[in-house]
Amino acid sequence: MPIEEAPAKRTTAGRPLPHCQVRVVASSGHTLPPGQHGEIVVRSPSAMREYWHNPRATTQAMHDGWLHTGDLGFLDTDGYLHIVDRIKELIIVGVSNVAPADLEAVLADSPDIAAAAVIGRPDDKLGEVPIAFVVRSAGSQLSAEQVLALFDGRVAPYKRPRDVIFLEAMPQTSVGKPEKKALRALTTPSV
């Protein structure tokens, strides 16, 4: 990234390096235009060729020389790559995809929230619905209603979390990210 563009593009992954191609594709495999979210695929001499002794995983990840990363993102009109989330993390509400990272960004803006994560919970009518796990900041008395109000006017109604679960501490992976598998174990299907 040229230094003069760094302030405006600091939240991006930058542009592809020479000899590296990056596309964003729909589930059908066709390339999406700038701004549309899809799976990030790459092709480069430095990209992996195969999984070690795992031809099945290789077949799932490689298509026509393109490595399917499993990352959700988009390219902007300047060719900068924005990584939004992991595809496996997507919450499918009815027929719509909801990226937990979009909802987590709203929660991260609140000074009353020390940590937050969003996962999908099974739902009889919609398949899945988003729910938020929140660790309050020290001294905060934030209520579930106040947490849900943070989404007013910021996300489409179908994306809004349906429930808030408060935790004393966020379970974390070895690299400090919320342990979503542990969070899923704390949920129960909606009634």
Tell me the count of domains. 2
Architecture per CATH nomenclature, i.e. the level-2 architecture of the largest domain: 2-Layer Sandwich
Approximate shape: globular
What can be said about the biggest beta sheet?
Answer: 5 strands, antiparallel
Q: Count of DSSP E strands?
A: 10
CATH topology of the largest domain: GMP Synthetase, Chain A, domain 3
Order of helices and strands: HEEHEEEEEHEEHEH
Derived from helix and strand composition plus strand pairing, the structural class reads alpha+beta
- Roughly what percent helix? 10-25%
Under CATH, the homologous superfamily of the largest domain reads ANL, C-terminal domain
Average pLDDT confidence is 91
Radius of gyration: 19 Å
In DSSP terms (H or I, runs of 4 or more residues), the helix count works out at: 5
pLDDT under 50 segments (min length 5)? none
The amount of beta strand, in percent, is 25-35%
CATH class of the largest domain: Alpha Beta
End-to-end gap: 50 Å
Write the layout of secondary structure elements.
Elements: H1 6-9, E1 21-25, E2 38-43, H2 55-61, E3 62-63, E4 66-75, E5 81-86, E6 91-93, E7 96-98, H3 100-108, E8 113-123, E9 127-136, H4 144-149, E10 163-166, H5 180-185
Parallel strand pairs: 9-10
Antiparallel strand pairs: 1-2, 2-4, 3-4, 4-5, 6-7, 8-9
Written account of the structure:
- The chain has two domains: 3-87, Luciferase, domain 3, CATH 2.30.38; 90-185, ANL, C-terminal domain (GMP Synthetase, Chain A, domain 3).
- Helices cover 17% and strands 31% of the residues.
- With 191 residues, it is of the alpha+beta class.
- The strands form three sheets. Strands 1, 2, 3, 4 and 5 form a five-stranded antiparallel β-sheet that branches.
